[in-house]
């Protein structure tokens, strides 16, 4: 393995958001001030040298593990493929959005246990830095002790509070079951079986607030980053803020994003929303939110290529500058997850870098993860 590398002649995104001609030197996985005499030189003239992409919420791994309903791929095969997909899309750090629900199947607690154990075993084989966002369904009370156990692991997972149970019951009672049919299919149930299970689980509603406080206190003791997911009202944002969840993920209303921003909190939205020109669920436009200062972090959500191309889209449309667009997928996500060792090209930081050809449609040429270089073509 090459231990010392110098990226020569590239246009580097500085920590001040400017693009400047500079060389970047790497030794032992870190960005260093001066080149090593034995450094391997990589010609980056005409290329942009940028901090690697940090994905704070990606669940496309679910498709790799379960490409069709009832079809399961062996964990090592699926996740090695995911690792290569991350690299091919410039993602150097990923937080897998692992849903822990009361549903059977792919989002069940047993599936979550298999994922966490499998990831631990495979971690030494990955090139990207694989982490986890525990996306806890607040009615899934059987998962609480597992969550507490996992929050003691290194690297420490982030924790997101999510309530799709109430949404499920509201949709069922209104007769709007189209999405619920998809969810039932994913769980390996008929719609009737799924709704019956949801109704049974819904009886836990009086206990949910106490369970949420309990989990938040456990996460706080562990020093975990906490997020709240799919908030509809300012009241929900205030509730979770008071519990220590200072990151607002996928707000469903503009007023929620405004409230988060006014309190100095990070707002996460989906990069697919940007490249598609809007939300597939009819929620806020991420591009509009960015243009109005209401979103500072983009996540891949369900599609890994979206992060790189969302930044390209925003620059092409003049929504923000190159540096601002790239901060949405690198510097800001790293900061929101408490990762102070990446997200910027500075001496002493981890050597996670993406080298792009931006002279036409943006194209990844090299990716550096912890000092290890993968080349995709020049």
TrEMBL record:
Amidohydrolase-related domain residues: 245-357
InterPro entries xrefs: Amidohydro-rel (IPR006680), Metal-dep_hydrolase_composite (IPR011059), Metal_Hydrolase (IPR032466), Metallo-dep_Hydrolase (IPR051781), PhnM (IPR012696)
Coiled coil (residue ranges): none
An example Gene Ontology molecular-function term: hydrolase activity, acting on carbon-nitrogen (but not peptide) bonds
EC number: 3.6.1.63
Keyword hit for Lipoprotein: no
Biological process according to GO: organic phosphonate catabolic process
Any Pfam family matching the protein: Amidohydro_1
Enzyme class: hydrolase
Domain of life (superkingdom): Bacteria
UniProt keyword list: Hydrolase
Name under which the protein is recorded: Alpha-D-ribose 1-methylphosphonate 5-triphosphate diphosphatase
Record organism: Hoeflea prorocentri
